[in-house]
Amino acid sequence: MLDAGAPAIVVGGGIGGLSAAIALRRAGIQAEVHERAPELREVGAGISLWPNATRQLRAWGLLDEVLRRGFRLAAGDLRDPRGRVLTRMSLPPADAPSVLIHRADLHAVLADALPPWAVRTGAEFRALRETAEGVEADFGDGGTETGRFLVGADGLWSAVRRQLLDDGEPVYRGYPVWRGVAPAGSAEWPGLTETLGRGLRFGIVPIGGGRVAWWATANEPEHADDGTEGRKARLLRLFGDWHDPIPQLIQATPDGEILKNGTYDRPPVRRWGRGRVTLLGDAAHPTTPNFGQGGCMAIEDAAVLARCLARTDDVPAALRAFEAQRYRRTAWITRESLRYGRVAQWQRAGAVRLRETLFRLTPPSLTSATLARMFAFEA
Ligand SMILES: Cc1cc2nc3c(=O)[nH]c(=O)nc-3n(C[C@H](O)[C@H](O)[C@H](O)COP(=O)(O)OP(=O)(O)OC[C@H]3O[C@@H](n4cnc5c(N)ncnc54)[C@H](O)[C@@H]3O)c2cc1C
């Protein structure tokens, strides 16, 4: 019989998996993270943490360090490629800050909150088997682990999800995102900016430590490559005549450090677990990055999961309660994000003019109401 103190198996050491282990351990539930990469690391890009996530980080005692490393956001705006402001982003008042931070910094803060023995690297999940009292997970060369329950936090292409739900691949939404980090230098930028063109977008995100993160999108088929000209040259061709400091930021980023990922999500599903197994973060509810909420929702998930499990010894019931509590919110954000992305990627000249007019006419209080709803969540 499995010891009631056997640890939970968390598959994946991204934002979701690390947060899950932090939240579970704080609730008195042993948890170990199993990450397939040889070491814990994150990509060279920025990430926004909105009040719905920073509130949780504060409850875990991690917000001060996040603020120390990141950039506290006070303002933002949407612009056209000439730099004219279409609308100011008014951040609704919240009891927790909005923070922009380098992903590696966030990852380090989360990893440091766990004892080193709670994270195992070089462990690639292959398959699971449920037993009467627990779950057995096969990590190939990394051996077999037995736990009280298993949380699949293995991201967009989740192997745990494949085995549990077998519901196909994520859906490509028509545009990739290029990302980079450049020294702030002369391109010091006061807040978050998103600039919308014809089927093209560029975002500027100060992330603290004298760095500015940026991202760009363009409508193109899945897996399209940047051709012989290379990423940087292509981006300079697409955005070279946009407002300052867009060309300078691309120019200041080494070609080999520019990332490119497709945007994907999945139509929301109500239930993403079975027995003593559940999913969390992108494995459960991947969303397009348009509102910068995917990682924030993974942090929320972790807090709700721990709360559900802390209340009962009935693990399967607690996992179903977790999924039920997370469905509406995550489905809403996933759908809103997809909708915004579609409009933001409009390409025809008439549609773009209409969009610009709509943005100019929309009272900031309206956008602020949607953001307020996103930011208000408390686990
Ligand atoms: C361009 C872009 C911009 C974004 N911007 C923001 C933003 O500003 N704010 C925000 O909140 N969110 C943002 N997101 C979303 C955010 O990055 C994700 O929602 C978040 O990383 C999800 O965390 P996760 O832990 O669920 O998955 P992941 O971060 O994908 O982590 C999964 C982990 O599991 C590991 N793994 C995978 N398979 C296995 C296996 N078989 N066995 C063991 N380990 C495995 C992986 O190596 C990885 O470490 C953005 C996403 C993109 C693509």
Task: Please provide a written account of the structure.
With 379 residues, this protein is α/β, with parallel strands linked by helices. It has a single domain, classed as FAD/NAD(P)-binding domain (3-Layer(bba) Sandwich), CATH 3.50.50. Helix content is 35%, strand content 23%. It has helices spanning 15-26, 51-59, 63-69, 103-112, 159-165, 231-239, 246-251, 294-310, 315-344, 349-361, 364-375; strands at residues 8-11, 31-34, 46-49, 71-72, 76-79, 85-89, 99-102, 119-120, 127-130, 135-138, 144-147, 150-152, 171-183, 192-196, 200-208, 211-218, 259-265, 277-279. The strands form four sheets. A seven-stranded mixed β-sheet has the order 6-5-14-15-16-13-17, sandwiched between helices. The longest helix is centred in the C-terminal third of the chain and has 30 residues, at 315-344. The protein starts with 7 loop residues before the first strand and ends with a helix. The chain binds flavin-adenine dinucleotide (FAD). The site of flavin-adenine dinucleotide has 34 residues, from helix 1, strand 3, strand 13 and helix 8.
